[in-house]
TrEMBL record, chains A, B:
Classification via Gene3D superfamilies: Acyl-CoA dehydrogenase/oxidase, N-terminal domain (1.10.540.10), Butyryl-CoA Dehydrogenase, subunit A, domain 2 (2.40.110.10), Butyryl-CoA Dehydrogenase, subunit A, domain 3 (1.20.140.10)
Location in the cell: Peroxisome
Name of the protein this chain belongs to: Acyl-coenzyme A oxidase
Domain called Acyl-coenzyme A oxidase N-terminal: residue spans: 17-132
InterPro entries xref list: ACOX_C_alpha1 (IPR055060), Acyl-CoA_ox_N (IPR029320), Acyl-CoA_Oxase/DH_mid-dom (IPR006091), Acyl-CoA_Oxase/DH_mid-dom_sf (IPR046373), Acyl-CoA_oxidase (IPR012258), Acyl-CoA_oxidase_C (IPR002655), AcylCo_DH-like_C (IPR036250), AcylCoA_DH/ox_N_sf (IPR037069)
Domain Acyl-CoA oxidase C-alpha1: 278-438
Keywords in alphabetical order: FAD, Fatty acid metabolism, Flavoprotein, Lipid metabolism, Oxidoreductase, Peroxisome
Cofactor or coenzyme needed: FAD
Residue stretches making up the Acyl-CoA oxidase C-terminal domain: 479-655
Domain Acyl-CoA oxidase/dehydrogenase middle: residue ranges: 134-236
Organism: Citrullus colocynthis (colocynth)
Family the entry assigns: Belongs to the acyl-CoA oxidase family.
Length: 663, 663
């Protein structure tokens, strides 16, 4: 960040204290400090350089990731980093690696499903990375439908072992990250069969590679599944394929917290409530929502800074207009900026929800689980979908230059999009939310009071009849009006679905038939949650000069932009009138103008280093053009001026001698 | 296509003659035959293999493209292919190359802007590829705003030459395809300066490389601008950067059809009407719209076939449900199928428009030009935007496997998206359409009758007052009802914008302020064009058993899906009632069910070879799993089971010896 700051005039305009906003974004002063320290540690260490990624072959790329992962672990040990610090360090290294699955799936899953004894055996190994674990659930033929998995684990009482087997080609494990090359162990999901009976899918700890020489163990076939979207992107990960030919593991490698098989082959359920598994799920999805805010804010930071650098048309006093001044540019960019903040705060709330669920589970209180489960599923779905689309929109907002890898945006998109698919396909998840909503509505007549994020359904009568009180555009700044409008829209859509469903004699058939509308009702419900958590956040104490004011504007932008985008919902449920919709648009335009002078500072508040951003267009100092220019020359294509292949393929053509040449 | 056809049962279900549909899709029997012949020629020639693209380094990839381009040219000569055949052959080679710019931009531009004499000199060279040309307009600092280009061409009467110069870093040419490595010549856009006066941007023919040894000529600096989105994708193209240091070219290399500079340095406009340049623009954009239907249909073909292969959940009789049977899957996929056909037919109509415009220009009739210009700009914008989004949606429709390069979808997306930016940034184009619409509305009071695609504005009175006559869901199948609804929505949105604009004292300020709404009005207008051209097509004779019926369904799907997606527009302009909107949804669901049995045949009608599709998921025979499995093993990562880097980066970690290792 040395040299001239080409965006200084933008930073001077800000009407709030950017340092205070940084703390709000990070969640707390402590979180900010840890994050800031780790970001700089990574950025200043040439071992973590990443700008050469797009030029490496797959094998070089992968080897380089192995190096970084080992080096990061070495630094974590040397610097005696806490778990939080280590997590942030890995985050800023910004390169998908087998360690993500080891720490993010293998360890939490062990913790969730292992018995005390199993944890005593496996956790220390995993914590010290004496073993490397991955999460092997998906198969070539089955992903979403976990119950349809084909791999079998048949108990053999003669040897006290399970026999893990892949009976078909489609039963090959397919996709697990870290499986292809790095992992020594896997949690393998397989149908537990004992005494000829199939007890459904269970998790098993299976050693897959030798701890001596890393060779694949007998009976197991493992490979990498090949290139994925983008260049570097997720190709640093060894997503793998695995086939078992009657592989034997000791009986005690079934994860036994919830059920066990005795020496004799008897299947026994433990008295630990199975609902506990939901805890892990809430944890994983909370992480995904926070990741969405990270990825979106990163893209928005790049597009915002570049939009202030880029000038096009409309010359005043000799210089052209910064494209960020165009209302169309603002109307595409600022809602994404607002969404990044909105997702941040809903992620923060999910953190709270996770703690709350964990506490309740400890006291066998399962009452909030279905609601927590539905709401995390829905939030995962809509935040990842909006983020994927938002990154691509940010790329387009950068015009032609956004298409260069040096903009950082193509790779960010390619590495991000699978979040829409893994941990639950987004549409499949929304269908789950829809089922929950329909059930909630149907139970309203009974004694069951809707809880948590569905509490508003308890005021159904009111919401069905209420009319929106907006008379002038400023009324749209009133949080309680906005909230009620979102509640009414969501409630009415759910009720409408329930009504139409009730006309079907076969409920399941009706659900299938109406599923597109049901998905829309689920989206409406989840958008309400995001709006309401943003509003809640603003009701609390938020220190810092001008900080709360800016967040209020962003909250309004998120809400009114969502309203505009889904105007059909609001009008068709008669929640608002066309006139009120048009007033919302007026207010939105006015908000864009108010945010404009603060835009650069609002993305500075993410506190991203240039290393982490990995984008010439998004450079902190705005010094885009000379750096774009210099970067181009580094491409291997520029090693020679006359290209490889000129003599064989260009010269004979120009000289009209193609006919005789061998191609 | 040998072996078992796993989709035969799907093909048997079709209720129309797929061979007849192939002809409709191709445009005519002749077009079909040429296309089919060329597709097979390419598919059966191993020289055009492309499945190894993702594993090549940039330099290898580029060299391989040079080889293919030369080989294709050789075949074109050997087989004495017609221009049409050659074009189709290059299309099926399916790899962006410098030849695209040579044939697609350099040659048409010469033709459009050169004098007879210039054409006599340059065209034969270009036609025989004795020179390779590119189109060098965009600069590092300027793209959309062509008038802002900085490169200068200053006339020096002493030597009768123009001096081409890049006065700043930002004036470097940046982006031109084919410039980086292949081209020997370029049409360079520069500010024509003579006698100290700046006459604005003009095109010049500049030789940039030696025809002897391909070295860059003195005073010129040329390089490749580096990696772009994706893996293979557009990285086969040598988009370039070029800087001039006072490079001299003969005076007669100014393209002089419209204006000349005399020996003495006098700037003289010719009497050729400048409007002729629009002809080229209509031509290029027509091509882009047809390309949109190609790219979208390709993605839809892959996703549709795979959706019929993929099974997940809902086991009946032991086998699970094909995911194509889920209504959510249909509601995401079938509108894209319908859009592919819709874009096809609007492209066909643009072909007609181009002929019409050309004829009129020949007789100095410029009356339809502004309208033709606006409508091609708008159609380019909305078809490319919908196609880019649609490809990514198709990828998501394939679940996890869509993320593999072997699905073909990631590369298709990466290679396609710049179409949203080049030949006019999509938002900038829509703003042009909006300006035209506002002008049309403001002239309605005068004697000027709106023509062509704006003719409906002539019935403004009626459209402002008309009410939608839909009473039951089948009414939505009536083309005249649908058409009027789209006309009314568009007219009302334009009028509303014009009304709000009129309240501003400064019209330009008003336009800027209201630009987001203006863009929406432009979109509405363009969607109307697409709907109306689809309906027009269906009014003509369409032979083939069941063919017209299927197209009618697709037309209704396109219209009703668009209506659903933009429901807010239709409701806020009171064009339809919420009840009517809901009836449209009912009809849409029913149409999905009707299309379902025909889905596979409808994508077969595109007549794509497996080579062209380049997708394991989209294979004609549906034999997905064994091929996915086998493909994975070909990845270089699988050359060894223990990965490169194990000894340095994995072993020391597992053995707890990291501390001592040098990383
Ligand atoms: C980058 C990446 C990393 C991954 N990492 C891992 C890992 O570490 N471990 C692991 O085990 N797995 C992993 N996976 C696999 C991932 O979990 C699955 O891809 C995911 O669960 C989606 O399942 P699927 O691929 O079977 O999609 P499918 O379910 O086949 O989806 C195909 C289409 O069918 C639709 N569909 C499916 N069911 C229904 C329904 N009931 N109703 C309506 N529509 C339906 C979907 O919406 C989608 O449009 C990874 C995947 C990716 C892409
Ligand atoms: C793959 C590829 C190939 C190309 N090939 C060639 C080639 O062969 N020859 C050549 O000369 N060029 C080529 N180009 C360049 C291309 O034509 C330009 O990138 C394109 O014209 C867009 O201009 P820009 O990049 O300056 O975008 P910008 O105009 O800088 O766009 C940035 C943002 O500003 C917005 N914006 C700009 N002006 C306005 C306005 N007035 N009102 C509201 N918003 C505005 C845009 O909507 C966009 O969001 C290529 C580009 C690509 C990506």
């Amino acid at each position: 960040m040395e040299g001239v700051d080409h965006l200084a005039h933008e930073r001077d305009k800000a009407q709030f204290d950017v340092n205070d906003m940084k703390i709000v974004w990070a969640g707390s002063r402590e979180a900010f400090e840890v994050s800031d320290r780790m970001a700089r540690l990574v950025a200043n260490d040439p071992a973590f350089r990443k700008d050469n990624r797009v030029h490496l072959t797959r094998k070089e790329l992968f080897k380089n990731t192995l190096r970084k992962a080992a080096y990061a672990w070495k630094r974590i040990i040397e610097l005696k980093l806490t778990e939080e610090e280590a997590g942030r360090l890995r985050f800023f290294v910004d390169e998908p690696a087998y360690t993500d699955l080891h720490w993010g799936m293998f360890v939490p899953f062990l913790k969730g499903q292992g018995t005390e004894e199993q944890l005593r055996k496996w956790l220390p190994l995993a914590y010290k990375m004496q073993i490397i674990g991955c999460y092997a659930q998906t198969e070539l033929g089955h992903g979403s439908n976990v119950q349809g998995l084909e791999t079998t684990a048949t108990f053999d009482p003669k040897t006290d072992e399970f026999v893990i087997h892949s009976p078909t080609l489609t039963s090959s494990k397919w996709w697990p990250g870290g499986l292809g090359k790095a992992s020594t162990h896997a949690v393998v999901f397989a149908r537990l069969i004992t005494n000829g009976r199939d007890y459904g899918v269970h998790g098993f700890i299976v050693q897959i590679r030798s701890l001596d020489d890393h060779s694949v163990l007998p009976g197991i076939t493992i490979g990498d599944i090949g290139m994925k979207f983008g260049n570097g992107a997720y190709n640093t990960m060894d997503n793998g394929v695995m086939h078992f030919d009657h592989v034997r593991i000791p009986r005690d490698q079934l994860l036994m917290r919830f059920s066990q098989v005795t020496k004799e082959g008897k299947y026994v359920q433990s008295d630990v409530p199975r609902q506990l598994v939901y805890g892990t799920m809430v944890y994983v999805r909370k992480t995904i929502v926070i990741d969405a805010s990270n990825a979106l804010s990163r893209a928005v930071c790049i597009a915002t800074r570049y939009s202030a650098v880029r000038r096009q048309f409309g010359s005043q006093d000799g210089v052209e207009t910064q494209v960020i001044n165009y209302k169309t540019q603002q109307s595409r960019l600022f809602p994404l900026l607002a969404s990044a903040y909105a997702f941040r705060f809903v992620g923060e709330w999910l953190q709270w929800l996770y703690t709350d669920v964990t506490k309740r589970l400890a006291t066998n209180d399962f009452s909030t689980l279905p609601e927590a489960h539905a709401c995390t599923a829905g939030l995962k779905s809509i935040t990842t979908a909006a983020t994927a689309d938002g990154i691509e929109e940010c790329r387009k907002l950068c015009g032609g230059h956004g298409y260069l890898c040096s903009s950082g945006l193509p790779e960010l998109f390619a590495v991000y999009v699978p979040a829409c698919t893994y941990e639950g396909d987004n549409v499949v998840l929304l269908l789950q939310v829809a089922r929950f909503l329909v059930k909630t509505v149907s139970q309203l007549v009974s004694w069951k009071k809707p809880v948590g994020t569905t509490a508003y359904m308890g005021r159904l009568q009111h919401l069905m009849e209420s009319t929106c009180k907006v008379q002038k555009s400023e009324d749209w700044l009133n949080p309680s009006i906005v909230l009620e409008v979102f509640e009414a829209r969501s409630a009415r859509m759910s009720v409408e679905c329930a009504k139409r469903l009730s006309k079907f004699t076969n409920q399941e058939e009706g659900f299938q038939e109406l599923s597109p509308s049901l998905v829309e009702a689920a989206v409406a419900h989840c958008q309400l949650i995001i709006v309401s958590k943003f509003i809640e956040k603003l009701q609390g104490d938020i220190p810092g000069q001008g900080v709360k004011e800016q967040l209020q504007k962003l909250c309004s932008i998120y809400a009114l932009y969502t309203l505009h985008k889904h105007l059909g919902d609001f009008l068709s449920t008669s929640t608002i009138t066309p006139k009120q919709g048009s007033l919302a648009d007026d207010q939105l335009r006015s908000l864009y103008s108010q945010v404009r002078p603060n835009a650069i500072a609002l993305v500075d508040a993410f506190n991203y280093t240039d290393h982490y951003l990995g984008s010439i267009l998004g450079r902190y100092d705005g010094n885009v053009y000379p750096n774009l220019y210099n970067e181009a020359w580094k491409d291997p294509m520029n090693e020679s001026s006359v290209p490889d292949g000129y003599h064989e393929y260009i010269k004979p053509m120009l000289k009209q001698q193609l006919r005789n040449s061998r191609l």
